[in-house]
Every structure is written in C-alpha cells, then in structure tokens.
Amino acid sequence: MPFPKPHIALDSFFHEVTTPSPSSSQAKQYPITVYFITGNPGLISYYHAFLSSLAQKLSPKLDNGSIVVPDPESKKSTIHVLGHSLAGFELEPKQSTEVGHQDHYFSLEEQICFVQGKLRGHLAELRREYSSPESKPKVILIGHSVGTYMGMEILRRHRESPSPSEEEGFDIVGGVLLFPTVKDIAASPSGKKLTFLLRLIPQLALVVSIFARILTTLLPASILTAIVNFVMKRPPREAAAATCSFLQSKRGVRQALHMAADEMRTITSDKWSDDVWGVASPSSTGAGSDLARPARLFFYFGRNDHWVAERTREEIVAARGGTNEKETGTGTARGPRMVVCEEAVPHAFCLRHSELMAGKTADMIREILG
User: Fold this and answer.
1) Between these two residues, 10 and 75, which has the higher pLDDT value?
2) Using an 8 Å Cβ cutoff, are 118 and 84 in contact?
3) Three-class DSSP category at 15
4) How far is 133 from 119, CA to CA, in rounded Å?
5) What does the alpha-carbon distance between residue 178 and residue 150 come to, in Å, rounded to a whole number?
6) Which of 17, 98, 314, 357 is the most exposed place for a label (fewest CB within 10 A)?
C-alpha cells in the first residue's frame, strides 16, 4: 500500500506540516504523528475545519503572518496531522461495507481497538516510507469528548503492553484532551437525561434510528437541511452538511446511540495509574526509557459542560491536576496540566470555535515537543 497523500475526505484527514529542523539530527527522524480521536458521533468531517486550522497553526510563520517555505537544502522535520471516522460512522461506501461492518454496532471497547489499528497502520506505512531512522516514531494523541477516554485507554495499553520489537515500537510522548469525559459521564446533565431515556426505552437506539430513517427518506434534502440549520441555530455550512450526512447514513444514528449507552456503563470511576495520568517524579524525568518517562498531558475543560458535571471536573482537577503535588518515595511528583475554559467555548467546539481551539491545541503541542 503506498504512503497516503495529504487529503481531506469524508472519513479521513491527513496533512503534512514541514518545519525547519532545529538540528541536523532531525533529518533522520520519523515525522511526529499527531493523531486525532473524534467524539460521538464519530465523523471526522465535523473536525475538518479544526484539523485544517491546526495544521496551519503548526506551520512556522514570519512576523507578517505568511507561511515559511523552508530552503530545499535545509534540514527539515515533519508533523503528520491525521484522523479517521470511528467504526460504524463511515460515509464512504468502500469503508462502510468492509467485512464485519454491515450488521454490527461497535462498543466503546471495539472503538478503542479500531483506533489502535488505524494508528498502527499509519505507523507501519511510516516505517516503510522512511529508511534508517535513529529513533522510534513519536505520537501525540488528541481526543475530544469520549475520544479523550479512548486516548487515555490507548496510552494505558501502550504502557502496559510487552515491549515491542524495534520494527513495531513507538513512543506516545503527549496528549491533548479537549472537553474530556474521562470519569462519571452518567453524572453529567446530558448523561442523566440519556440514562433516564435508556431506562424508559431500552431499545432507544433502534427506535431513534428508525425515526431518523423515515424522516430522511420522506423529506427532500433541502427541507432536511433547513431543519438541521434551524435546530443547530445556523451552524457553518460544513457542520450542517456533516449532520445531514450523519442522519442520512444507514447506521450512523443507531451506532451513535449504541456507543453512547456503552459510554454510560463504562466511563465511571478513575481507573488509571499515576504514570498513565502523566504524573512525573524526579526519578522518571531523567530516565531514558519512554515508558519510564510519562507522556505530557494537557486537559482542557469546558465550564458548564453538559457532558461533564461541574463536581466531576473539580474532582479530577483536585486529584490529578498539574498544580497538585504528590509526595513520593523519590520526591515531589507533578501531574498533567489542566485548564478550565474562561471563554464560554461549548462542548461541541468543532461547530463554531474550530479556529480558537486549533490555536490553543497548537500551543499545547509545541509545549509537548519543546
């Protein structure tokens, strides 16, 4: 399989960012892989504007705002920004008719494995494309909403898995978790409503998917678009188009509710150790092993987030926040960086606040790589 070219497609996104390298040793290193994990609904098309803006903001710029074009003879480093729709949400016929996709609805656990497979597939292509590397490929995970839970689980499994061979190994060096639903999602305002509806209508996913199918079959596309624009309060054209495609897809609505029900059962108490949370002690910060050195994590919480209860957010920040210091046997350990939004950005930031959040995310990535 040839290495993919940069593209923006219904079910995938891939962009290369080339920057001048700070040192000659960078020339032989793998590109940094920035992998984005969507929320639910798991359509990457909701995030096209965000990922495009993120790639642009990661590009080096001159004082006048123009993009730097590195000298062809200079040493260069590369960042790959990529993501894929979650399983069962694919809109392209080739993707949605793959074996095992047609009559199956994916659980949260299966989605985690699906994302792991996509990430490993990209890294395998990376190894075939780049010869004689001096180090392992480096990965930064970005997650939104339930994608943050998946990112934390992927990080845990990566740290707990047996050491892979040199041909398969990679380092997860950081993570950016946007509006994270990593604990007690059922206690959130929307979580309580969904839990009540699931108790009232056990087959909620099937009932709603049938209603959506009837609605999209009977209504002309123009009327459906008008309804979507009204309900979503006139979102950007790309967001409205993604929503219409989601409603018209054969399995998307049922997949979203099937997965949401599983989220209510699965995302409960804090289940990760300090090293997964990125808690670094003096003994680990100077260690050479990637597993000894925790990944740098940034959590960006919303205020009055309808998928994260205020109490849940406060508990996470108090217990795991970067300002929280823990006394360990080897000294004082610090946790991940946690920020609470003061700009009234909603949970679904990808609808109207892509540019703002892309800037914040780019700053976090630079700190991770710095």
Assistant:
1) 10
2) yes
3) strand
4) 19
5) 12
6) 98
Count of CB atoms situated within 10 Å of the CB of 112: 20
Place of tokens 């006139």: 234
Partners of residue 79 on adjacent β-strands: 17, 32
Q: What is the C-alpha to C-alpha distance for residues 256 and 6, in angstroms, rounded to an integer?
A: 28
Q: How far is C-alpha 173 from the geometric centre of its chain's CA atoms?
A: 15
Q: What is the DSSP string of 196-258?
A: HHHHH-TTHHHHHHHHHHHHHHHS-HHHHHHHHHHHTTS--HHHHHHHHHHHHSSSHHHHHHH
pLDDT band at 102 (very low <50, low <70, confident <90, very high): low
Whole-model pTM? 0.90
Q: How far apart are CA 172 and CA 174, in angstroms?
A: 6
Name the nearest CA neighbour of 59 among 351, 359, 349, 356: 359
Which of 44, 173, 55 shows the shortest CA–CA distance to 115? 44
User: Tell me: the pLDDT tens digits for 155-170?
Assistant: 999 999 876 656 668 9
DSSP secondary structure code for residue 203 in this structure:
T
Lookup: tokens for 153: 């689980």
pLDDT of residue 169: 84
Place of tokens 């209860």: 309
